[in-house]
């Protein structure tokens, strides 16, 4: 057979870079290997600029404004050609961060003439261990991916669910607890619960801290303090890290401890799990006929059954959320551990961050598409309510309890009396009204329950949507 591995252009091994590339492409600018190298170049450039503009090393001239602009352009112009060039250098160095150092030194010779400014090149990667560059790069990458790609998509989805909740806040729905008919609610209120839960997780994620360290091979500023003992290195480190838009971690081993990553991934995974809950609930409502899939459904639902429109968007989302969570969970549990002052498990593990967010982003896309194709079917919801008049036993026995507590005679054993009427059998409106009229309720209470139907027994559901889904 023809070897697909030799195809040109190369064929993707994974689904995210193949079948689903379009949905996850925005993450490439943040969480790909090329994005990692671009961020490494960014950190190295900013460290060089910082040293010269802050006089960290005595006797070294400051870079001119034009030189700083040219160096920063190396970052903004970093594209496929630079990726390939850096790859060639790494094949010689067999070290990714060292390759970045050599790449920048070559660029610096074009920006600042080597015969007059030979010393400037030695400030590239000065005092750094590779992890000083890597941890800052990953923090900036993840921050960018979350704030610029994932969060906007997640917020848009939560607003979509919230809009549906507001639209359907008055549509009565038979609840099902333990799979059994239960106190009616509204479709809008049930969607509002999910939107509220998702929104709470987004607020946690929005407040995430992104930490960075810059303190040398074992976190002691060892080489720094011996080379330049008069410099307040912790102060320099803090100013540099915070200048990149990150929170400074003052106390680490060789690596930044990655606790912030574990915290973030736990929150994103929790968001994913709530979204998974939304998928299974909406899938079930579709199967019950409460939603019709009518808009934007030009697909083949079944290869043999022409009547079918399968809820594939929600099923696809479920699978991708499960893959995302498996990766987020292992990232969170593994990254917080490191043998003594350093091992390399985090290096391999962090290369899966993009895949974890990619599957979550793909799920967000599928859920949004799936919801956009739904129309509520109030008639189906009303029909189920009409078949379940027994759910009105709850408010009647509760009212009898309240009356009995107030001393109204004849209100004995209300729960048991309603249980005898309703458990294990179906009743209709006539049965219930006849029962109510025989209870001896005060006239106003009797009138209230005679008029009550399963469709009108939604209590404060609509108000809860208005009050808590602003």
From TrEMBL:
Catalytic reactions on record: N(6)-(1,2-dicarboxyethyl)-AMP = fumarate + AMP; (2S)-2-[5-amino-1-(5-phospho-beta-D-ribosyl)imidazole-4-carboxamido]succinate = 5-amino-1-(5-phospho-beta-D-ribosyl)imidazole-4-carboxamide + fumarate
Example GO biological process: 'de novo' AMP biosynthetic process
EC number: 4.3.2.2
Keyword terms: Lyase, Purine biosynthesis
Pathway(s) served: Purine metabolism; AMP biosynthesis via de novo pathway; AMP from IMP: step 2/2; Purine metabolism; IMP biosynthesis via de novo pathway; 5-amino-1-(5-phospho-D-ribosyl)imidazole-4-carboxamide from 5-amino-1-(5-phospho-D-ribosyl)imidazole-4-carboxylate: step 2/2
Residues covered by the Adenylosuccinate lyase PurB C-terminal domain: 338-458
Molecular-function GO terms, alphabetical: (S)-2-(5-amino-1-(5-phospho-D-ribosyl)imidazole-4-carboxamido) succinate lyase (fumarate-forming) activity; N6-(1,2-dicarboxyethyl)AMP AMP-lyase (fumarate-forming) activity
Top class in the EC scheme: lyase
Record Pfam families: ASL_C, Lyase_1
Residue ranges occupied by any Fumarate lyase N-terminal domain in the UniProt entry: 18-317
Chain's role: Catalyzes two reactions in de novo purine nucleotide biosynthesis. Catalyzes the breakdown of 5-aminoimidazole- (N-succinylocarboxamide) ribotide (SAICAR or 2-[5-amino-1-(5-phospho-beta-D-ribosyl)imidazole-4-carboxamido]succinate) to 5-aminoimidazole-4-carboxamide ribotide (AICAR or 5-amino-1-(5-phospho-beta-D-ribosyl)imidazole-4-carboxamide) and fumarate, and of adenylosuccinate (ADS or N(6)-(1,2-dicarboxyethyl)-AMP) to adenosine monophosphate (AMP) and fumarate.
Family: Belongs to the lyase 1 family. Adenylosuccinate lyase subfamily.
The name this protein goes by in its record: Adenylosuccinate lyase
């Amino acid at each position: 057979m023809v070897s697909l591995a030799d195809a040109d252009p190369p064929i993707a091994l994974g689904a995210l870079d193949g079948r689903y590339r379009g949905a996850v492409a925005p993450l490439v600018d943040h969480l790909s290997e090329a994005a990692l190298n671009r961020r490494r170049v960014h950190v190295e450039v900013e460290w060089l600029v910082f040293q010269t503009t802050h006089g960290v090393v005595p006797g070294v001239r400051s870079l001119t404004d034009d030189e700083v602009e040219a160096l920063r352009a190396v970052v903004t112009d970093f594209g496929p050609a630079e990726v390939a060039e850096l790859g060639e250098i790494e094949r010689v160095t067999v070290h990714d961060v060292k390759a970045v150092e050599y790449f920048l030194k070559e660029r610096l010779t074009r920006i600042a003439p080597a015969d007059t400014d030979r010393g400037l090149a030695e400030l590239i990667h000065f005092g750094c261990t590779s992890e000083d560059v890597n941890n800052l790069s990953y923090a900036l990458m993840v921050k960018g991916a979350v704030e610029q790609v994932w969060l906007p998509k997640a917020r848009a989805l939560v607003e979509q669910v919230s809009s549906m909740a507001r639209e359907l806040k008055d549509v009565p729905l038979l609840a099902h607890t333990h799979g059994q008919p239960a106190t009616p609610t509204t479709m809008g209120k049930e969607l509002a619960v999910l939107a509220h839960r998702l929104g709470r997780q987004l607020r946690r994620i929005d407040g995430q801290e992104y930490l960075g360290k810059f303190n040398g091979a074992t976190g002691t500023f060892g080489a720094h303090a011996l080379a330049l003992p008069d410099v307040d290195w912790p102060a320099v480190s803090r100013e540099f890290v915070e200048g990149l838009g990150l929170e400074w971690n003052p106390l680490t081993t060789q690596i930044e401890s990655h606790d912030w990553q574990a915290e973030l991934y736990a929150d994103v995974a929790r968001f994913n799990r709530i979204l998974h809950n939304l998928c299974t609930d909406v899938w079930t409502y579709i199967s019950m006929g409460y939603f019709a899939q009518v808009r934007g459904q030009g697909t083949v639902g079944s290869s043999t059954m022409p009547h079918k429109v399968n809820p594939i968007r929600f099923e696809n989302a479920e699978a991708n959320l499960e893959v995302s969570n498996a990766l987020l969970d292992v990232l969170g549990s593994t990254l917080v551990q490191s043998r003594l002052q350093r091992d390399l498990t985090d290096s391999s593990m962090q290369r899966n961050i993009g895949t974890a967010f990619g599957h979550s982003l793909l799920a967000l896309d599928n859920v949004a598409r799936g919801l956009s194709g739904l129309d509520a079917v109030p008639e189906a919801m009303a029909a189920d309510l009409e078949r379940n008049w027994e759910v009105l036993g709850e408010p009647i026995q509760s009212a009898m309890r309240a009356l009995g507590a107030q001393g109204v005679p004849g209100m004995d054993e209300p729960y048991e009396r309603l249980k005898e009427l309703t458990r294990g059998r179906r009743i209709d409106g006539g049965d219930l009204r006849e029962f109510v009229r025989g209870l001896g309720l005060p006239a106003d209470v009797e009138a209230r329950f005679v008029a009550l139907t399963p469709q009108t027994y939604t209590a404060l559901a609509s108000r809860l949507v208005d009050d808590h889904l602003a």
